[in-house]
Amino acid sequence: MSVAEGTQVQEGQLDGSEKRVAPLELFFDLVFVFALTQVTALMSEHPTWEVLGQGMLILVALWWAWGAYAWLTNYIAADEGVERLLMFASMGAFLLAALAVPHAFGEDALLFGLAYAAARWLHIFIWAEANDDVDTGQAIVRLSRTAVPAPALLIAAGLVDDGTLRAALWIVALSIDLAGPYLFGVRGFRVSPGHFAERFSLIVIIALGESIVAIGAGVTGELDAGVLEAAVLGLIVACALWWAYFDVVAVVSERRFRRMPAELRVRIARDSYSYLHLPMIAGIVLVALGVKKTIAHVDEPLETVPAVALFGGIALYYSGHVGFRLRNLGTINRVRLTALIVSLALIAVAVEVDALVALALAAALTSTVIAYEAIHFREARSRIRHGQDSM
Q1: 82, 137, 167, 222: which one has the fewest Cβ atoms less than 10 Å from its Cβ?
Q2: Residues 211 and 288: beta-carbon distance below 8 Å
Q3: Which one is predicted more confidently, 14 or 282?
Q4: Contact 5, 75 (CB under 8 A)
Q5: Residue 262 CA: distances (Å) to CA of 161, 186, 187, 258
Q6: Handedness of CA 315, 317, 320, 321 (dihedral sign)
Q7: Nearest-5° Cα angle at 42, 24 to 362
Q8: Distance (Å, rounded) from C-alpha 352 to C-alpha 347?
Q9: CA–CA gap between residue 110 and residue 128 (Å, rounded)
Q10: Closest among 26, 65, 57 to 39, alpha carbons compared
């Protein structure tokens, strides 16, 4: 199938229906789920500042690679013809990278670099192979200026023995890769709004699913009252984070996304989704780490790194929401900005009280945000959820 035919399908020009997320894309995301689990396991096994930083760098790399494929499958019919086989090959590269995550800064550094580069470069090849649009082809060439050398630097990082130099190469590589869309722009790309918004909404659910998995993974002993209470509190936090995104934010953002001119839409896709969803995903992963360590030691104070992960993760998640609204509407979400500040302040409390109490405070904070917004903005919320208003 040519890209022109694929574009017709995704924009609903053949049968009036809009492109939705294909089964192959959901199948592809299963590897990303495993990768997120590996990142959480890495940080949980060795909860130090160094490993926390390594985990975040790995997460950024994985996120950027996944986001590249979200743009790809939004534009072409990747589940047709040879593209389907190439997507399977990309899944294989992702899987190898995920397997190398626990030692991505150690003995498996080179394996991670090679597998990651294969996934990134296959993405460029698939797009170029399936594309016959001149403007999009030029856009792919522009982005290749950073998407090609950045993974090569991760391979170089796997070839050095010095830990500081390896970390520096990672930081430079990711900085180059993430700067690409801003340095060279996204002119020439097109976005199918419903599919794109759904794709990123689903990845938020996947990340929240990892926080649920962390609850079970944190249970290593007897199911006593403290562990059960912690499990319920962890679920409350996950539900509150889900509500914060899907109750109104996802509805409004997709609605506005559909109405935008094509040129503005592609820039919003870059800023609000590729960039500003990253702190949301990173925040959820950090919260999962904090919940996992809480359940393992409910009657002891959290160590500093897990405490920072729990409440810093909540703050990071809300920062993504604040930035998302600021970019889309030009206004500040004061409620979530306040919750962000309170969450950071609670880090000092979390290292002094039992972990179960700290998790209860996290559940109370995230639930209070939802309760306040649901009550204070109930009329606007009702209009939005019934399709009568955009904000």
Answers
A1: 222
A2: yes
A3: 282
A4: no
A5: 47, 12, 10, 9
A6: negative
A7: 90
A8: 9
A9: 27
A10: 57
Q: Which residue has the tokens 């109750």?
A: 247
H-assigned helices in 105-224: 109-130, 134-147, 149-159, 163-184, 193-218
Rg (CA), the chain: 21
Give residues with Cβ within 8 angstroms of 259, minimum separation 6: none
Q: Residue 274 carries which side chain, given as an amino acid letter?
A: S
Complete DSSP assignment for 188-212: T----HHHHHHHHHHHHHHHHHHHH
Residue 53 contacts by C-beta under 8 Å, 6 or more apart in sequence?
167
User: Tens digits of per-residue pLDDT, 164-190?
Assistant: 999 999 999 999 999 988 888 788 888
Distance between CA atoms of 334 and 48, rounded to whole angstroms?
A: 32
- pLDDT at site 186: 81
Q: Which residues of 44-54 are buried (b: 16+ CB within 10 A; e: fewer)?
A: beebeeebbeb
Contact 367, 236 (CB under 8 A): yes
**Segments in 219-246 forming alpha helices (H):** 225-246
DSSP string, 333-388: -HHHHHHHHHHHHHHHHHTTSBHHHHHHHHHHHHHHHHHHHHHHTHHHHHHHHTTS
CB neighbours of 131 closer than 8 A, spacing ≥ 6?
A: 3, 76, 137, 140
**pLDDT at residue 1 above 60?**
no
- Measured distance CA(101)–CA(324) in Å, rounded: 29
Q: Is pLDDT of 18 > 60?
A: yes
Measured CA to CA, the distance from residue 26 to residue 31 in angstroms comes to: 10
**Dihedral in degrees, nearest 10, Cα atoms 192, 193, 198, 201:** 130
